[in-house]
């Protein structure tokens, strides 16, 4: 594991401490740390709620990064209170990509010593699918006239 990822895992691990907030919500089950291209580290924790109001640790770290006027991510990792590295969910993968087009080259740690570029974790990119669907709709409309 390279030194950057060692540091990111250490930071994410410090945050991965599940805490009960109320009978309806908890936080901190997963901690995330990301390194921007300019060398800054941002962190976040997840919020788990009994409905769809929670969010992932990656999402929180990205928000923190955006608050500081950065958007290009070099490396990112999420760590669970269960003691393991988690791969980002599909929503977080798309968010990483959408905040900066260059983030397709972001290095994502999905397990110990297992790292992929984001573009390899997104075989069906959302915008590509939407553009394809829209193009098909336009073609269908043209054929009807």
Plain-language structure description:
The chain is of the alpha+beta class and about 140 residues long. The chain has one domain: Cytidine Deaminase, domain 2 (3-Layer(aba) Sandwich). The protein is built from five helices and seven strands. The chain has helices at about 5-15, 55-65, 90-100, 120, 125-145, and strands at about 20, 25-35, 40-50, 75-80, 85, 105-110, 115. Strands 1, 2, 3, 4, 5, 6 and 7 form a seven-stranded mixed sheet that branches. β1 (about 20) and β2 (about 25-35) form a beta hairpin. The model has no long low-confidence stretch (mean pLDDT about 90).
How would you summarize what this structure contains?
This protein has a single domain, classed as Cytidine Deaminase, domain 2 (3-Layer(aba) Sandwich), CATH 3.40.140. Helix content is 39%, strand content 29%.
Tags for this model:
145 residues, alpha+beta, 39% helix, 5 helices, 29% strand, Cytidine Deaminase, domain 2, globular
What string, H for helix and E for strand, traces the elements in order? HEEEHEEHEEHH
Sheet having the most strands:
7 strands, mixed
CATH architecture: 3-Layer(aba) Sandwich
Q: CATH superfamily membership, which one?
A: Cytidine Deaminase, domain 2
Looking at the structure, the CATH topology is: Cytidine Deaminase, domain 2
